[in-house]
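Figure caption, in words: inputs first, then the predicted bound structure.
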Amino acid sequence: MRRKFVAGNWKMNLNVAKARALAEGLQAKIAPGVPVDLAVFPPFTMLSAVGEALKGSAIKLGAQNCYFEAEGAFTGEVAPGMLVDVGCELVLIGHSERRHILGETNAMLKKKIVAALAAGLKVIYCVGEKLDEREAGRTEAVLHQQIHEVLGPDISLSSVVIAYEPVWAIGTGKTATPDQAQEAHAYIRREIGTLYNGKAAETLRIQYGGSVKASNARELMSQPDVDGALVGGASLKVEEFVGIIEGAAAAR
Ligand code: 13P
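Bound structure (1,3-dihydroxyacetonephosphate present):
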């Protein structure tokens, strides 16, 4: 049985004071001992303050991106070891906004995952198709490429979670139906089985992301291959995010 994992991607929002308040609000409202793994991903400038606010809590700290070199002349980039240094345990790699707005390629993402794991971080690797790709019937082809060009025997999956985030469902209010999510998750798990082995596929956690709210969380996470949620907008509101965590805990 895979334990559910709910994570909040705060994207480019808040400031230090608001981020600290959100972290404290979550700590106060999340039931102690809730059987769900939890993490938040604040912007870089808020990592230290949020890390301080979360000390002693079950909520893990993660960053939204990192570079693939350990140090050097890479102006504006942040190394995986620097994230560990400020208390991060996780990093998001390959979010669709980084792929499609910032131009990150599968080749870069592979290097980032290798570097992040080498620094001791856990990785949430994001995959997902765009609307035109889904409409052209290319969803599985896109996922296939995002999996096979990035993962493989040189990357151990023991510290990797995959997030399936259909780009057309991100920030649009359009959620994938539970059936659409299940279908994509089952495909991803099958491909991991092919690329690695049955055990790796069975233990891998696959989160769904794209307009997850308290009202749809339980049904989505009740699908057999949906092991959690990567939440954007709704993770900025304490009540909504807590509702999503409760949905995960209640999912069957
Ligand atoms: P929304 O929940 O705002 O649709 O964003 C999803 C997402 O991109 C999480 O990484």
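The chain has one domain: 5-250.
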